[in-house]
Design goal:
The protein has 240 residues and is of the alpha/beta class. The chain has one domain: Rossmann fold. It has helices spanning 34-38, 61-69, 82-91, 108-114, 139-147, 164-177, 207-218, 222-232, and strands at 2-6, 9-13, 19-24, 51-55, 74-79, 101-105, 119-124, 149-160, 182-187, 192-198.
Amino acid sequence: MCVEQQDGLITLHFDNGLIQTQIDSSHPEHLPLIGNRMMLVHLLFGIEPQSVLLAGSGGGSIGLWFDHYLPGTEGLAVEKSSTVISLAQQYFDFPPANSNWSIKQADIREFLATTIRRFDFILFDIEEQGATPEWLTHDKLLKNCLNCLTDRGIVSFNFVGESSENFIKALWSIRRAFPDKTCCLSHPESGNIIVTAFNQKPSIENLEEHAEAVKNQYNIEFDVFCQQLFKDNPPQSGIF
């Protein structure tokens, strides 16, 4: 993996060429990558988390966003690779000094199985050999994940470069663990698909109106995401 700095952007590349993290050095709270912005789709439903767990830290762009826009949020990033942690600290200034964020070197599977902490929002952004690892949606991990959520908790999974067969298999595993409480958000151009699951089924009433409000609040295209949600989630599927 390597870090590239060009035109004011700092980018963390994995060996396969996949861009894991990118920030604007002048405005590190901005999220240049559409996939990162999609990871915040849960904000469309009026749920502002007070505690966040990042499963896989990368350069920490999501944590930097939370530190700027929701500074009261307590965040923890769990990252297995000491190299990634060092790069995050050296090039991306993550976790920021004097913030509510910390980073822990550990395998997320072991962490979820043993921690007593509970989180409002868990984000899985993990890549192995160019794809989302199969173990990420095994029943045991999903059960441990559910046990680590607060009553109003949410978990999101970022899928990139998945075959249709592998994605459908993963989606059904998540839907079994969270029956009638999931939604998908896709971006065909980038290949990102975010699957979000809720501990409690959220309301979708006035979703379009709320999208405009949070779009202006956070400077993210939630109106576009809202329209894509309706395309990706037919009636009677998940929360729709």
